[in-house]
Amino acid sequence: MARVKRGVTAHKRHKRLFNEAEGRKGTRRKLVKAATEAQLHALAYATRDRKQRKRDMRALWIIRINAAARLNGLSYSKFVEGLKRAGVALDRKVLADIAVRDAGTFGKIAEVARGA
Fold it and tell me: pTM for this one?
């Protein structure tokens, strides 16, 4: 069986790793073992934080809706309950955007929620 020298493939793999490790400090971008470990952690954090971002955004939308609802004399829970009873099918993302950009329209939506 022929002898296989792996220098070329190892060099290619290490080069790819170091390109992904750009911007890190110290040995985390210069040494293979440290860079590999840093890269694995970075990928794990990226996976986790894609889920976390969704939670954070929903929390932000709820905070914005609550603030705007209270300016219109309703609590967040009463506002959302009123919208459900009135059959208004706007999600929190859209409601938060309306609350930030167009207070007049949000006031009309709050009136609908109050009336229901």
Answer: 0.78
